[in-house]
Amino acid sequence: MNHEIKHLYEGLEPLRRKNIRMFFQQAPKMLLYIDLLEQGGNANTNKAVNYIYSEELTTTSRNILINRFYKLRTKIRLWLLTQLKNSPICLTPEEQELAFLRLMVIKNEHVYAVEQLKALEQRCWENNLFELLPELLQLMLRAMHACEVSDKEERQNYLTKLEEAIELEHLLQKMKYYINYLYANIQDYNLIIDRIRRQTKNLKHYPRFVMLYHFIAFSAGVFREDLVKKTSNAITRHLNQFNQLKKTYPLMPILDFEPFHREKIDIHFCMKEATFWYYKNNPKKSYHSIKRRQQLLQDYPDLYTRSSEAELHNLIYFCLNAEEYTTALVYIDELKAYQAANFYDRLDNPYFSYELIVYVNLFPTKQHPNPAEIIDQISHFLTTAQQDSAWVYGTLAEFCILYGYLDKAREALAHPYLKALYKGYNMAIQMEDLLVAIEEKNILALKSLTEQLTALYKNATVAKYKFHYKGLLKIAQYFLKKLR
Description:
The chain is mainly alpha-helical and about 475 residues long. The chain contains 25 helices and no strands. The longest helix has about 35 residues, at about 150-185.
């Protein structure tokens, strides 16, 4: 609950932060709790008890103080949830207006409510706000019955509208279900996309469903590498159609109707485009999508956006693929904070495994400030790592060679996981060949390896071979220059 209250408090607007102090001005312990929340960070129960009840620590049982804190915490949580419910952070202007008109109907201001509901209804139909229409039309009928401002035919017309609105909202929820279904069952992509196309083909007068069709087809389709790489690409057509519709209907929501819905979908969609261009083997366009996402986040610094560890891994990977190592370090820092905040004690890909790649590629221009420390971190991680982390041994070996830890490099290269991985790759030149030449300071061997690796890197068409030969070539060139 401490974590929840931290985020609830951080979501308060400045004015509401002033209000909370006024509301609890007669409760000194609550004001101390608010002071602690203002300080930020993760305030655990022990820290909170020590801060709020510092004067009672020596005179009152700690269990009693903890129970008092729990009561205090429950009280502030209820207050914060009440504020959140009506916060502009959570409600669009249309939702706020609908909430106000709901109040007007409750207070029997029916004539006024009908007039305002009609104006709001028109905006909802124009912008395909299917989430709001069922409740809005229910309120309309309730107000009409109460004040009898309309005839029977008009009320019947609104009943017909209500029935359609309920069906449209149901279909909208079905579209959201399909998105979640495809994330878990991407093998059914063609089946689901065809089903969506059939369900929306007669609803072209509601452009939101057309946008959703192209949005889902592209967003899920980018995870089908076989489809993305086809020359005559349906995925590309979905991308182009979606981008055109976004320009045509700039106010219309696509997936969720919430504050800044279009900005959020644009940020989300940048990741999909980055994935698309990555599979298209176009790292520059992939990175351009990432930069556009970065710019949107800078333009809207207070925007609440969904983030996940998987997304951060992808951002780092796309930057590495585009050789944008400085930007990769920014996302590595974000991943470090994310993994720390989520209290991970077992990681498949810890942030420092990516640091290895970055500092191998930036060497010698930018060097790791503490190579021994990161080698120890990686070595500790690898003691419990599974075989799918075999690539880390290879990167560790590269790092150790560049930073002069040759014994550590040989130890990493000897690991069975890495040997099995390289055996599957069947590379023409292995890292051991390079390590032997470096240990012997054999300039002729290094020169020969450099020439061979240059040709292999140039002719490689498979990404994993290109990546492997590029890393070895960089090391060979560095030591050849150093030893001459």
